[in-house]
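We were asked to recover a plausible sequence for a given structure. The inputs and outputs are reproduced exactly as logged, with field labels preserved.

PROBLEM: sequence recovery
POSITIONS: 361
GIVEN STRUCTURE:
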């Protein structure tokens, strides 16, 4: 069906940002500059209500994320609430802060899937990137526990200039850890990551080599591990259909209860977000100004407005369009048809070997 208006779809995924607290200091963190403090975090019953309302809206999966969700003392209760709402639960963790005991409790309460991030293939480099000594060893230990408990494991590897040449070794590490899936996710330059863009940006040659390597690895490891990978934004010709289209397939709830169409939506000024403290999720999904701002295609400008791909990529990423042009309605400059596409090429060529600005809460 062509989407010209604001057709209301059912959301399928809920990203529950349980807390912004996190022990790591990753320079590519895409959380906003202003983090929600612990005292503003939603309590257990409110999250349980949100999960039940999400299931009522059609959501199938909840991603328990952060920050580091292990910082929440009630994590097992939250997993139980997701289970009783009938949601498939995926824990997205740095592995630092989740002990073997906690994991066993989570497994007992019905956790369905675990995703662990790795920063590189050696302890020295991985710990340097994470800004946390000993993180690599703890990730290995938790991954072993996940596999021992027979919970499906995904390894998430955020790629950038310092580790992209180790892509093959990182996939080998994911295999060795027992992961059934590895997600090669390139750094996205929103929120904190924007501060480190020139320090993180890979070169065009690195990106080309990595793309070829992904194809080789997919062939070599077919049937052993699923390798998910896309071309990084600044080196692509066409933009990604960010979050499956604004207000179309997913929603994010922040630690303090604001509901966002994507995790970086607060970087766009002037949007009005509603909170689960005052509204039901169904009301927010259908009626909140932020969700309706870029729903459908009627808000688009040229060249998106008359482009055949407007129902395929939805004009790309609104947060990236704003970050790069100052106008959230602009065509995502990653698109080769965008008037400001040249800016992206110039930024992709900007590499500075400067120290990372680590994220510290
Ligand atoms: Fe997508 Fe807009 Fe580019 Fe067309 S012009 S490919 S809709 S971003
Ligand atoms: Fe907000 Fe892409 S991250 S629309």
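RECOVERED SEQUENCE:
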């Amino acid at each position: 069906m062509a989407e010209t208006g604001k057709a209301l779809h059912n959301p399928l995924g809920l990203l529950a940002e349980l807390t912004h607290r996190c022990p790591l200091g990753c320079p590519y963190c895409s959380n906003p500059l202003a983090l929600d403090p612990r005292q503003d975090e939603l309590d257990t019953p409110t999250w349980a209500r949100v999960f039940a309302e999400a299931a009522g809206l059609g959501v199938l999966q909840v991603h328990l994320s952060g920050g580091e969700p292990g910082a929440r003392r009630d994590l097992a209760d939250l997993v139980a609430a997701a289970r009783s709402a009938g949601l498939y639960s995926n824990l997205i963790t740095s592995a630092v802060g989740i002990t073997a005991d906690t994991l066993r409790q989570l497994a007992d309460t019905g956790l369905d899937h675990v995703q662990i991030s790795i920063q590189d293939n050696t302890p020295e480099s991985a710990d340097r990137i994470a800004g946390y000594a000993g993180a690599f060893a703890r990730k290995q230990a938790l991954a072993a526990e996940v596999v021992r408990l027979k919970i499906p494991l995904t390894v998430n590897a955020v790629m950038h200039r310092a580790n992209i040449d180790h892509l093959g070794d990182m996939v080998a590490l994911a295999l060795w850890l027992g992961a059934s899936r590895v997600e090669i996710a390139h750094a996205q330059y929103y929120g904190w990551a924007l501060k480190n863009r020139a320090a993180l940006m890979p070169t065009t040659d690195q990106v080309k080599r990595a793309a070829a390597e992904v194809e080789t690895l997919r062939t070599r490891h077919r049937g052993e591990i699923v390798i998910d990978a896309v071309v990084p934004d600044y080196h692509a010709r066409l933009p990604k259909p960010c979050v499956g289209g604004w207000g179309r397939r997913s929603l994010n709830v922040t630690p303090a209860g604001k509901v966002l169409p994507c995790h970086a939506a607060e970087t766009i000024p002037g949007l009005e977000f509603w909170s689960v403290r005052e509204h039901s999720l169904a009301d927010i999904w259908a009626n909140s100004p932020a969700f309706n701002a870029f729903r459908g295609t009627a808000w688009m400008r040229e060249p998106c407005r008359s482009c055949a791909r407007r129902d395929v990529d939805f004009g790309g990423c609104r947060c990236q369009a704003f970050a790069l042009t100052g106008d959230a309605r602009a065509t995502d400059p990653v698109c080769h048809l965008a008037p400001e596409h040249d800016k992206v090429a110039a930024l992709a060529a900007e590499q500075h070997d400067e120290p990372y600005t680590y994220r510290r809460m």
